[in-house]
């Protein structure tokens, strides 16, 4: 993974978890060939381990195939919630939890 290719390492993305794609606003350009172009996604794998889906891939420079960052996304269901996480030097770190029930018991009922 290349710290010279990104503006900020592992930026906090709140609850924005990307299963695929790239966070181009954090990409300053390839430190190896000095081009700022779109990236390719290489070596994408999807595994299921103990009920958790794990997606990993490499962000790679389109021109010289320099590896910019390794992306990891996870998805699982725990009790009544879907849980998502993302960890990537380029795309950042994030996690989110969403209720699978029609009405999320963590949210307050409307006043009206």
UniProtKB/TrEMBL annotation:
InterPro entries hit by this protein: Churchill_sf, Transcrpt_activator_Churchill
Keywords: Activator, Developmental protein, Metal-binding, Transcription, Transcription regulation, Zinc
Domain of life assignment: Eukaryota
Region forming the signal peptide: none
Pfam families given in the database record: Churchill
Family listed: Belongs to the Churchill family.
Name of the protein described by the UniProt record: Protein Churchill
């Amino acid at each position: 993974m290349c710290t010279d290719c990104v503006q900020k390492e592992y930026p906090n993305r709140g609850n924005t978890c990307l299963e695929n794609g790239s966070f181009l606003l954090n990409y300053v350009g390839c430190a190896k060939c000095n081009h700022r172009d779109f990236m390719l996604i290489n070596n994408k794998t999807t595994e299921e381990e103990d009920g958790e889906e794990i997606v990993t891939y490499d962000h790679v420079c389109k021109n010289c195939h320099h590896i910019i960052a390794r992306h990891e996304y996870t998805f699982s269901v725990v009790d009544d919630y879907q849980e998502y996480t993302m960890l990537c030097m380029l795309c950042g770190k994030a996690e989110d939890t969403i209720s699978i029930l029609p009405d999320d018991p963590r949210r307050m009922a409307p006043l009206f």
